[in-house]
Every structure is written in C-alpha cells, then in structure tokens.
Recover the amino acids of this structure.
C-alpha cells in the first residue's frame, strides 16, 4: 500500500515537473513523444466514435449533395487536407498533428463520424469546428463529399468548383470579397 502511494507521488511529481519546468517541447517542428501521440490519437478516436454513434445518417447521399459538399471542401478544407491529385498547402505540412490526407483517411471514419468531426472540430489540433457557422444540411453535404473522396478520380475532383460564395448559417449574403476566402494565383479551378 505504501509502495503504491509512493509510486503515485513520484508519478505526480514527474507530471508537475514536466508541466512547470518547460520539460515538454511544444514546438510543432518537434515530433510528439510516441506515448503522447498514441494517447492523443486514441483519446480522439474513441471520443469521436462514442459521440457520433447515435447521429442519424441521411438515407442516401445524392450526387447533388456530393457536388455541393465539393464546393465547400475546396473553399474550406483542401488547403489542410489536400484532395485527389492535390497536395495540402505548404504551411499545412507543419501543423502538428499533420492534417491527414482525407483521400485515404476518409475510409476509416463512418459518415456520422465525419459529420461530427466537421461540426465540432478537435481541441488542441488545429481542426476547426464548422458547426457554429454552418447548418447541418451543409455539413452533411461536406460529409457526403468526404466519404466519396477515396473512390473519386482526379478528373472528377478537378471538375468541382470551389464555393467561395457559400452562405453561412443565419448570415446575409454580402457578395464577393467580404469573406475570408481569397483566390490564390494559380488556383484556376474557378471560372467566373
Ligand atoms: C487549419 C487546418 C484544417 C482545416 C481548415 C480543416 N482541418 Fe480537418 N483536421 C485538421 C487536423 C490538424 C486534423 C487532425 C486531428 C487529429 O489528429 O486529432 C484534422 C482532422 C480531420 C478529420 C479526421 C481525420 C483523421 O483521420 O484524423 C476529418 C474527417 C477532417 N479533419 C475533415 C475536415 C473537413 C471536411 C474540413 C473542411 C470543412 C476540415 N477538416 C478543415 C486540420 C484542418
């Protein structure tokens, strides 16, 4: 019993020393310690799975939903997550954890889990929450598109246009230039 209490005290002391001395390197240029990385990823996976399991999924994802979701995806997600034949932005390479390439990662998440992730985001990772600014119908379109990504051809992916004009939930539409999306030179998917 004394042994267990001493061990607990030693563990607590180590945790406090790490927290207060700056012992853990938070630099994004440094990799996570594998134990920390495992704990964070496993916590995140189980947290999402348990919270998303009861969410009812639309009966089917129509091509119109996928196309609408594509517009949102290209405006708000591809710079971090890339696309079919499209790599993520250079600065997104240095986010820790690195935003996964959804073309492959989408397979490991159910549609309702993608919906939950997009709606709520993930704390301490850089994955934003889109629920506060987008309604559920828009988020289902995005989920439909993300789930279609693994089987999409590069041609089909390229054929979708970024929706830089999309309506935000409960917001008046102010036209071009008022939103935080900028057309990047060379980003020639848009024909206006
Ligand atoms: C600023 C960068 C950024 C943007 C923008 C962003 N994400 Fe993420 N996203 C991340 C990061 C970082 C993670 C990794 C979270 C983790 O590992 O816990 C992530 C994780 C995810 C995951 C879980 C994948 C996995 O295997 O971990 C999904 C699904 C996802 N994002 C979808 C989207 C969608 C859809 C959009 C657009 C509506 C979007 N994200 C916008 C950074 C971003």
């Amino acid at each position: 019993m004394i042994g267990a209490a001493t061990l607990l005290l030693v563990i607590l002391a180590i945790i406090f020393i790490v927290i207060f001395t700056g012992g853990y390197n938070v630099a994004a240029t440094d990799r996570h310690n594998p134990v920390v990385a495992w704990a964070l990823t496993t916590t995140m996976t189980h947290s999402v799975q348990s919270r998303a399991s009861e969410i009812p999924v639309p009966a089917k994802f129509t091509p119109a939903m996928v196309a609408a979701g594509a517009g949102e995806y290209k405006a708000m997600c591809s710079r971090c997550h890339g696309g079919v034949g499209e790599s993520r932005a250079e600065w997104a390479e240095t986010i820790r954890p690195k935003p996964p390439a959804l073309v492959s990662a989408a397979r490991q998440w159910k549609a309702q889990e993608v919906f939950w992730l997009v709606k709520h985001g993930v704390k301490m990772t850089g994955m934003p929450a889109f629920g506060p600014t987008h309604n559920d119908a828009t988020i289902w379109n995005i989920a439909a598109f993300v789930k279609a990504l693994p089987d999409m051809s590069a041609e089909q992916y390229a054929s979708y246009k970024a929706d830089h004009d999309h309506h935000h939930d409960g917001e008046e539409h102010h036209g071009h230039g008022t939103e935080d999306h900028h057309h990047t030179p060379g980003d020639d998917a848009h024909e206006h």
Remarks:
- Residues 31-159 form a domain with the Cytochrome Bc1 Complex; Chain D, domain 2 fold (CATH 1.10.760.10).
